[in-house]
Each structure stands twice: as structure tokens, then as C-alpha cells.
Amino acid sequence: MSQAIRIHAHGGPEQLQLESVDTPTPNTGEVLLKQTHIGVNFIDVYFRTGLYPPPALPFTPGMEAAGEVIAVGPGVDTLRAGQRVAYATPPVGAYASERVMPADRLVPLPDDIDNATAAAMMLRGMTAHMLLQRVINIQAGDHILVHAAAGGVGLILCQWAAAIGANVIGTVGNAEKAALAKAHGCTHTVLYDAEDVASQVRDLTGGQGVRAVYDSVGASTLASSLDSLAKRGLLVSFGQSSGPPPAIEVGVLARKGSLFLTRPTLFDYIDTRESLLEAAEALFARVRQGEIHIHAAHQYPLKDAGAAHTALESRQTTGSTTLVV
Hints:
Blueprint lengths: L1 E5 L10 E5 L8 E11 L1 H8 L14 E9 L11 E5 L9 E5 L4 E2 L6 H21 L7 E4 L5 H13 L2 E6 L2 H9 L4 E4 L5 H8 L5 E6 L6 H6 L1 E9 L13 H5 L4 E3 L3 H4 L3 H16 L9 E4 L3 H9 L7 E4 L1
Parallel strand pairs: 8-9, 8-11, 9-10, 11-12, 12-13, 14-15
Antiparallel strand pairs: 1-2, 3-4, 3-6, 3-15, 4-5, 5-7
């Protein structure tokens, strides 16, 4: 038997219940993992609430974890029992002590990346790679705006952008988060509850605005994101922690400077084995070179997944949150 968090009905964090489940058997092309650390992300909240529909109820949430291969199914010759691996990809089911995964969705971990670090950075780090180098290729000297700069993706994104040589403006909720964001690559921070974000961005960029805005907040930030962009700038909407962003009348993009808008999802950018390994290795290289430090201050036992969700949703966390099996 294994332990897994199960959700029988959509709702609040109280729906996350630890249960005993049968240990699965890997089928063709799959491996069985013994997991040690599990990433907690807003996408898990979206599945819990029903914003993103799961395959069926009940289900086990989660899309990010690290652990060890303990059995391989037929046809798997690229992985072996005892090998450490990590992932940040569907199918859902990561909140478990053991689970099966498609072998081609797993990334072997190098010796200098431990499980705890991997589970705290795979989804967030490969998202940062996507945002900075695939959705748009940010260059040295570019100005960018990162909402929720002290969050899990935000801290990695700011460091990666700074390593490229970009000028990073980050929005944060308080002075403590501002200090953390500045220590992780932000050139300037803006307190979104106390300052006019777009006005501050214009002041910091000589009135020009930024080349790209990275917005994981959604409803409460869409207007300021659009108003912070330079002509022909790109708004990258990749989350909605404050709720779904409102609809945009297409003509607004023209009136505000021939702007671009995209809503990327990581899984469309790591959909092939080659693109997955490329993104993972780019992340490992930045961490290995000391350009990115993973801030993983929040760990919870698997049984306390509900408490982890509560902390994440109430913005009590900074950096990455993980569950420990």
C-alpha cells in the first residue's frame, strides 16, 4: 500500500485527505517511483477547486516531484531501478508516496541536484526558461516587469533575467518581500497595494515602459500590466492567483501601442522529449553556475497538504513550497 492525497469533491483545502491506496504497477513505457519531495503549485489549487477539470473524481493532485525509480515497465530501457529522477508534467497524481509515470516525461537528476531542490524548482524553473527564452527571447538591457516577484516562479524568473542582463522590476506585497526580491535579481520593486504600478514602471524606464510583463496574478493586475508595456510590448499572462483576468477588447491592444498578448502553458513548450531535456538542462546549468539559488523555505509533511494550500493561497509563502514524504 502507498499513501496519497485524494480529492473526492471540489472545494477548499479541507478536501485534501491522506488515504491508503494500492501501489500501482507500471505498464508498458511506465516506471514506478518512490517519491521523497513533491512540489506545491497554484495549478494544484486550480485542479482542487475545479477551475481545471481533473480526469475524474476522486483524484490525486500534483504535477511535480522528485524521487527514485523502483520498478520499470515493459519497453523501458532509458531508466533503471535506483535512479533518481524528477518531473513537472501531467498526468496529475504527484501528491503520493509512490506513483507510476511515463518514462519519457522523467528527467534524470545529476549528482549535484538533490531531490529537495529538484522538487522545488522543476516546474517553476522550466517555466522561467519558457518565459524568458521561448515565449520571447529576453536580451541584456531589456526592461521587464515581474508580478509576484517574491513567489515561487518570481524568484527564479528574476534571477534568470538578471543573469541574462535584463533590468527587472518586480511587484511585491510588503517590504520583507521587496528585500527578498531584490536579493534575487530585482533591480527595483513596487509595492502593488501602496503604489501605482504602471506609473512607477514609466518613471523607472524613462517613460518608455517595459518590453515584457510576466503576470501570474490575473484579475487584479491585468490593467496595470497593459499600461506598463512599451510600444509593441508583450503581456505574458501565465497564471491567475487573484482570479481569472477579465476579457480584453482586441482594439485596446492597438490603442495602447500595438501590444501583444499570450497565454502560454509550460506543457506546450516541453511537449517533446528533446524540448523537455533542453529546458531541464538549461535550468540545471544556471543552478550549477550559482546564477539561480532556489528559495525553498516552506516544507510540509504530505499529510499536511491542506495547510500548504492554505499558506499558498493566502500569500503567506515566498519562493517554493514542497511536501515531504
